[in-house]
Amino acid sequence: MRFRSLLTRLTVAVGALTLAAACGAGGETPGGQTGESWSIPDTDPEATINVVGIIDPESGGMNDVVDAFQQEHPSIKINYQYVPFDDLNSVLDSRITQKTGDPDVFWVDQPRVAALATRGYLEDLTDPFAGLTEALQPVTVEASSFDGRLYSLPIANSTQLLFYNKDLLDAAGVEPPSTDPDSRITWQQLRQAAKTAQEKGGAQYGLLFGQPDRYYQVQPLPYSAGGGVGATGDGNLTPDVANDGWVEAMTYYGSLYADKITPRGIPAEQIDSTFLAGKTAFLVEGNWMVGKLADSELNWGAALHPVWQGGEAATPTGSWSVGINPFSKNKEAAAIFLRWLAIDGESGYAKYRAYAELPANSQGLQSYLKSAAFTDSEGGKQSAQVIEYETQNTAVGRVSTAGYIEFEDILGRAFSDIANGADPKQALDSAQSQLETAWQQYR
Fold it and tell me: How confident is the model at residue 35 (pLDDT cuts 50, 70, 90)?
């Protein structure tokens, strides 16, 4: 997510003031440990809980999820409020710091758990959910925790695949990339294949990134090139985004835009539909693309995520959790909703939402990979094979640090600058300097 520099400074200031106030008043401490003891009740209370999420209720399927929950738990009403992805941080900052308890529940980007817990924005769920997280994949529980405590409940996981348009590759005489780990395509080979598809196959665009200029999407490039996750040291509070691996990888990234292999100016929300329109050769995108492709007329295939030549294969992982506002007056009802979303059965979120991310629920994941989208076509079967391999062997989590919000914002602007022609080394040096300043408050 990218925010203007002024908003970042205001966010940091508000977070710091909130944390200071929480530590000095009424025994409250970071992470929402207000001293109140509560547990998940055996019977449903009468309650209305306000939920802030980044999934569109209509096109994203959250209406179906909410309706299913309320049929099973009629005394708990859900007031679901959609907030665009890029606005979530500012909305949570402005509303949680008011301490009114609204929202009761909100979507939590997993790498932000440490930052949100440190700022006192998340209720500690360790005791209420003790013994209940066995239904979840351990890596997702770890991503939802901080300092040995559970601060959110995972509803999803993710990986990235390389999708391709078979017709465009055939027209260009380009061999499709492989699902064999020993024959994984390199980023360098992909660049050439994408360019050839433009020159000889009639492709308008050679390569699209599902989330251009976002750390989640771009991280595998510098990591695979030997640059690391972007931070080191105690608490990952020493920025490390200007080393040789990062500069080399981001020089490559910038060249894709400079050579018009990857287009400038298409927002993330329009990337999938651009690929589905049939004029793009390759798309690096998440597993959620499979359902959309299965419903399309596109002649498509799926392959392993690219690797840096001579480097280590790396794919993004992690996704969304749900957390409870520490000032909520409806924690018990909120916890019932969280348990239903993530734990009960195959998980309500995975069962009722079309095109959902990889379920964090283990039972839900098995059902997900056996669905028609993955079994009724060659591309679907390729996708299932890739997903199983990448999630088990190449997944690299985003950096866990209390300074993640500033980290993602600053890097997002650096990536955008590089895509728009800025010198990669200068942009990364500037990002490094900004992070050094922004993270002083956490040391």
Answer: low
